[in-house]
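Target chain:
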Amino acid sequence: MLLKRFDLGETCPGFPEDDRLRFRQERCSIVLLVEHLLKSTPIVTEGVRKVFLELEQLDKPGLVVIDTALSVDVVSSPFDFVQYFAADPGERPAMLAIASESALETLACDREWSLDAIRGIFAKIREANYELHADRAKACRSPKGTKRARVSYFVDREEFRIMVTVTGPMRSLLFQDTIYRDRPTAALCVHFTLGKPFWSSDKRLIVPFSGSNNPSGKLVVKIP
């Protein structure tokens, strides 16, 4: 089995709810970066498909495996939330990446997973400056075949957005715009689904999307 999913949680009682909400939002870029890079950097496991890492405000060091069920490893690791919330916002993604990499390395040593793969993933995360830029799929042609639409998305600590680029004959640019923008939400990492776009007409592109503040489950783009 291959490791496909990753998530971060927090246990930090006593901290203001606004701070805890901020953590849930800021974790999204690291979680989605790890999951995106797992597609190109496979990690073979013995029956584990997802790791859920609970960062806890604990004094004792070390990783604790809480449970393994339904192909999910639930693990706990100490984390200094006092330092995290006091840090400059731009430094926080690095702190989450360091904690995540350390926990996964410890788990990999225990489970005999590839350490090189884990280190490679986090090296790429640092190279990307903790930002994810990704294309959803290959460009899709309009019904008449004269237009090609490409959907991409971006996420960092503060923002999540979806962009559409449409080109015509000779790759001429016909349309380019951000069709969705929001702060990362706690649900984004859990329910994020950006489906394959399709044309309902030569001037109407449908982008299936759920996992944030978009109850309709789709984005409709009118193309000139």
